[in-house]
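Box S2. Input/output pair 1.
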Amino acid sequence: ISYITSRIAVMSFPAEGVESAIKNNIEDVRLFLDSKHPGRYAVYNLSPRSYRSSRFHNRVSECGWPARRTPNLQNLYSICKNMHSWLKQDPKNVCIVHCLDGRAASAVVVCSFLCFCRLFTTAEAAVYMF
């Protein structure tokens, strides 16, 4: 898990079974998030794969699109609005964003969100932060 800001983090897909030997183990991720942000995190799954949202206390938003494709602007705007709403609810709330590799789709969403919140005025500046 890499924190982009104190309230936005990215990671690769949380895996189970054999796959967890080379990726983030979903149970380890849950234990970490429950200890560091108890009851204060929402997970945004940008990958085309899914898992039981109960693993993260039913606070998972399935926002995925096909790998190596771009989201449509309506979907991207909806994700940004949802993240903004979650963070606005409580200053301790955090957003955990993941795609398959923790880079491609996660970068698109996080950089879009940073511009959506007007933390940056250009995409280049947001990408540099990422």
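Box S3. Input/output pair 2.
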Amino acid sequence: MRYRIQGRSGRRIAVVKLERGDEAISSLLEFCRRARVSSGTVSALGAVEKTTLGWFDRRRRVYVKRTFRGVVELASLTGNIARLGKNPILHAHVVCSGRSFRSVAGHLFSATVAVTVECVVIETGALLRRKPDPRFGLNLLDINEGR
């Protein structure tokens, strides 16, 4: 992983390049820790493999997961960075397509970079936090709590 940051604290923009073999989620979280990014948005594209996506079954309160083993185009990743306790957490959804050009989409649990993943992280001025929501069993964004 390599990155470049521009701007002043609280309003920075970073370009993050993930490289072959990097795990996308853990690498982006490592970037957040190194660069001290507490809150922000992220968008990305690239090529990944061993990609695990999820769809949330609200009735059962669990994610139904599926892993795609082959190389797929990461056509779009969009997400946000917030704090859960003292740690950064990334909530990301993706759209991917393979050789058939059929798309799949869902909550991104993991993906290994096959070629590259090119990310733009925009730091927000307000601190975003997540907290457990017992109705769903998920850590949801808490917009009532911030800086």
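Caption for Box S3: The chain has a mean pLDDT of 95. The longest strand covers residues 103-123.
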